[in-house]
Amino acid sequence: MVYYILGAVVASLLGLLFLKISIGKKKSGASSMEAQSTDSVMGRSGNGSTDTDIVIVGAGVAGAALAYTLGKVEIPSCFVGLILEKCELPYKNHGHVILADPSPILFYPISSTEIRCLVDVPGQRVPSISNGEMNHYLKTVIAPQIPSELLSAFMVAIEKGHIRTMTNRSMPATPQPTPGALLLGDAFNMRHPLTGGGMTVALSDIVVLRDLLRPLRDLNDAPALCKYLESFYTLRKPVASTINTLAGALYKVFCASPDPSRKEMRQACFDYLSLGGDFTNGPIALLSGLNPRPLSLVTHFFAVAIYGVGRLLLPFPSPKRMLIGARLISVRISAACNFNSYTVNQFK
């Protein structure tokens, strides 16, 4: 982990040095270099020379320097990644989310013979790989919760030792109006990757930006262009805020807890998604960005709560179940407050 941090710092410093050198050069020489090293939208100026009219920064944040400078970054958990070989998922060609303890485990195919496994570890630190703590954790805590179809391949992957770790970051979208530049992707907005919403949001942002830039013929007036692109931050909100909010809410619900009411809410959410019809299609449409309506998100949010309480009180409520139901409502009200606060932050 120390080597990753040192590497990130060195990469960030080299990047800043490269940027300083690039800015000091003439535009004619810099434009060709920028075309190879940055994601840019190239335009043609009035005198016939090719210049960079707007630089689009959409890189990931391996070094985290840019993200930590621009916004409030949270690290809810880390992923431990392995590649499983020569095995089959319980449901072929589908992604799988295992509601494990202490937090979810993801499986999804990446080729005809390989399956990626991502073990979520809450907090900002993971067991050490170098001293064997990681192997011990995966074998004793995680392995007993792995589906039987994947267990043998999971153990083989551990023994091979090709284990990778990454931090999961969350950062609300904070507009950074800058003449001549625009942030996209993880440089601008991050959410927990449990639902795989990062690429969906990034591609949606690209479509919004494309539609805004399409009617323009002159991108040379950087201040005017910056003012014009302020609408980008408003137009992206329905899709981005819905996926961001759902990713954060589902991660909290799917994490294990000793609280009986939280356990009941976790099971209620799982059973709700298993009902089929609109109970399944609705949340899936939200996750995929096909139905970017915050009102639909709110509807399903409270529907899960009502469903969970109903399961406890029917057919005959007992004092214990009524107590859990009351606690569940309390937890859901608290979650609703956080939900509203988070949604407001997303829509600012």
TrEMBL record:
EC number, UniProt record: 1.14.14.17
GO cellular component: a single term: endoplasmic reticulum
Keywords: FAD, Flavoprotein, Membrane, Oxidoreductase
GO molecular function: flavin adenine dinucleotide binding; squalene monooxygenase activity
Cellular compartments annotated: Membrane
Primary site of residence: membrane
Pfam families: SE (PF08491)
Recorded catalytic activity of this chain's protein: squalene + reduced [NADPH--hemoprotein reductase] + O2 = (S)-2,3-epoxysqualene + oxidized [NADPH--hemoprotein reductase] + H2O + H(+)
Membrane-protein topology: Multi-pass membrane protein
Pathway annotation from the record: Terpene metabolism; lanosterol biosynthesis; lanosterol from farnesyl diphosphate: step 2/3
Domain Squalene epoxidase per the UniProt entry, residue ranges: 72-320
Cofactor requirement: FAD
Superkingdom: Eukaryota
Keyword set includes Membrane: yes
EC category: oxidoreductase
Signal peptide as annotated in the record: none
InterPro entries: FAD/NAD-bd_sf, Squalene_epoxidase, Squalene_monox
GO biological process: sterol biosynthetic process
Entry keyword annotation includes Flavoprotein: yes
Protein family (similarity comment): Belongs to the squalene monooxygenase family.
Reported function: Catalyzes the stereospecific oxidation of squalene to (S)-2,3-epoxysqualene, and is considered to be a rate-limiting enzyme in steroid biosynthesis.
Protein name per its UniProtKB record: Squalene monooxygenase
Lineage of the species this protein comes from: Eukaryota, Viridiplantae, Streptophyta, Embryophyta, Tracheophyta
